[in-house]
Amino acid sequence: MKYIILFTGLLLAYYSLSAQQLVPSAEIISQPVVIEDDDWRFEGTENLMFVPENRNKADSRKIALHFFRFPAREKSTLAPVVFLGAGPGEPYAVEVFYDGSRAEAWRYELNFVNQKRDVLLINQRGNSDSPGLPPREFIYRWKNGGKLDQPLDLALMNRNRREAYAQHINAYTDKGMDLAGYDIFHFVDDIEAVRKQLGYKKIALIGNSFASQWGLGYMQRYPERVDRALFSGVEPLDHNYDDPEGIWKVFETIDTYARADEAIAQYLPEGGLLEAFTAVIERLEKTPQYARLTIDGEEMDVAVGADDLRYCLTYPRVRSYHAEIESWPKYIMELYQGEYSSLASISQGRIYNSTSRMINPLFNNSLGISPEREAILNSRPSRRWLGEINSHYVSTRDICPAPKVPAEFRQHKSHDIPTLLIQGDMDMSTPYENATFLMEYLENGHLITVKRGFHNAKRALIFADSTLMNQIYEFMNMDFGETDFQTFKSSLPDTYEMPPFEFWPIEGETLFERYRRERKR
Questions:
Q1: Do residues 235 and 213 touch, judged by C-beta distance below 8 A?
Q2: What is the CA radius of gyration of the chain?
Q3: How far apart, in whole angstroms, are the C-alpha atoms of residue 181 and residue 226?
Q4: Rounded Cα–Cα distance for residues 290 and 296 (Å)
Q5: Longest C-alpha distance within the chain, in Å?
Q6: Closest Cα partner for 81 from 215, 166, 203?
Q7: What interhelical angle do 100-114 and 457-464 show, nearest 10?
Q8: C-alpha distance from residue 271 to each of 30, 144, 257, 259, 335 (Å)
Q9: 466-473 and 457-464 helices cross at what angle (nearest 10)?
Q10: Most CB contacts within 10 A, which of 346, 388, 410, 426?
Q11: Mind listing the pLDDT tens digit of every residue in the chain (521 residues)?
């Protein structure tokens, strides 16, 4: 691994300042950066740009906004591309370039567009994993309040979460932070500040998940500044809260595939996996169930209840969305058959503390949700089984110091900005319905549906079919003044099918036994 950077001294000097002393003499400071390995290289600058923490206050202190800039390798008149981080909390740092398969896919995107376009990687204000953004640890911690001999109590956990959030709001305010400056408008206006500082007339946007929402916020506020956009894992502005029906539809799809698999279907009740799931929820609502585990060398009975399953809807001891889906029939059928060891081993974490980034509730509670949309979500039949999946927002929204956006900002408007969407039909984080909803407002839009695709369907496509992705990424090079967008989109597929699932066998070692075996390796 090769990495050349002359930025360390600047950051050390920056971090030596206290919250009250953040008064830099220059609006932007930059140092050259070369990030490379044997077969790839990115050369440009790493930058700190000083912006008001609260643009609504004339005397606001300045904070540092961190971003990379890589000039295009070839001369062109194409607008620069702004890559936005997901999360909130996904950082752009040197380490990201080397972070396994995730980095491999990301470098593919970066390398493709950097050939003919300047590339900007803009970090989120308040992201404690990014350099130059005070404070270094902008998080809050809360006690889950659980006990091993009692099932998880989500209401108690959320009360504790709310109390801890309020305490941290006071603590960070006492340190000199203005938390009103961490709403969606400030995130959006940070993009605009960088664009203006660098003198670009327009920018193109690329992002996944939360980054799509961040980008859509920019498009809503500054549509005349957007050249084009490519989003995946789409989050429309009024779809900030998760939809239980989106999760339920994925479960219905898994059930359909499982019924068609003879090796799995023979173990299912007449009503399939969903009958098994609802039966387990009802059983756990009536009375806690127990599994005997060895914890710190001592055997004990660990209780599980309905909230434990609602908190762990899929089997979390796997490292991919794909494995979550393929293990789901076994996960549910073990519970249905009275085997609770796996859920109990996961749920024992309730006795510990949890941690989250402060910017998550600040941003999301500032954006909020319209009463009309919330009423729709609350009326979903699946809510009976999944519970309040947005409790982390609901429990903190009324004490959030970030100002709420006007209702009209969440109302999508039709526009003709060329926009490509790549969405998995089995995405449980940002449901497929998000993309079909957004398409109604895109006069020059195209949706590529990835069958059996998950949350980052774009990344999966990069590994599954690089030829297709090269074709898709020509979107970034097209001159739509010469080639009409509607003509270009006709060259792209509407759908792409990932390989069939290979579900984990129902019989044999339990998930808990498998986990213990793999830990011993």
A1: yes
A2: 24
A3: 24
A4: 18
A5: 72
A6: 203
A7: 80
A8: 62, 35, 14, 10, 16
A9: 120
A10: 426
A11: 444 344 444 444 444 333 334 444 458 889 999 988 888 888 999 999 999 999 999 999 998 899 999 999 998 889 999 999 888 888 888 888 887 767 888 888 888 999 999 999 999 988 877 766 556 678 888 888 778 889 999 898 899 999 999 999 999 999 889 999 999 999 999 999 999 999 999 999 999 999 999 999 999 999 999 999 999 999 999 999 999 999 999 999 999 999 999 999 999 999 999 999 999 999 999 999 999 888 777 888 999 999 999 999 888 888 788 889 999 999 999 999 999 999 998 888 788 888 888 889 999 999 999 999 999 999 999 999 999 999 889 999 999 998 999 999 999 889 999 999 999 999 999 999 999 999 999 999 999 999 999 988 888 888 888 889 888 989 988 888 888 899 999 999 999 999 999 999 999 999 998 888 887 76
Q: Do the Cβ atoms of 65 and 194 come closer than 8 Å?
A: yes
Paired tokens of 212: 């799509």
Question: Pick from 170, 137, 183: which is nearest to 364 by CA?
Answer: 183
Q: Can you say whether residue 18 is alpha, beta or left, with left for phi > 0 and alpha for psi between -120 and 50 degrees? A: beta
Residue 208's contacts (CB-CB under 8 Å, 6 or more residues apart) are 86, 231, 232, 233, 455, 456, 458, 459
Closest by CA position to 86, among listed 119, 133, 126, 123: 123
Rounded to the nearest angstrom, the gap between the alpha carbon of residue 229 and the centroid of all alpha carbons in its chain is 18
Contacts of 402 (CB under 8 A, 6+ apart): 179, 180, 181, 182, 183, 362, 363, 365, 366
Sign of the Cα torsion 429, 419, 369, 403 reads: positive
DSSP for residue 415: B
DSSP 276: H
Q: Are 261 and 318 in contact (CB under 8 A)?
A: no
Q: Which of 23, 43, 22 is CA-nearest to residue 32? A: 43
111-129 confidence digits (pLDDT tens): 899 999 999 999 998 887 7
Which helix (H) or strand (E) element contains residue 111?
helix 100-114
Which residues make Cβ contacts (< 8 Å) with residue 224, sequence separation at least 6?
A: none
pLDDT tens column, 50-73: 999 999 999 999 988 999 999 999
Tell me which H or E stretch contains 289.
Answer: strand 289-295
Query: What is the token pair recorded at 86?
Result: 């997901």
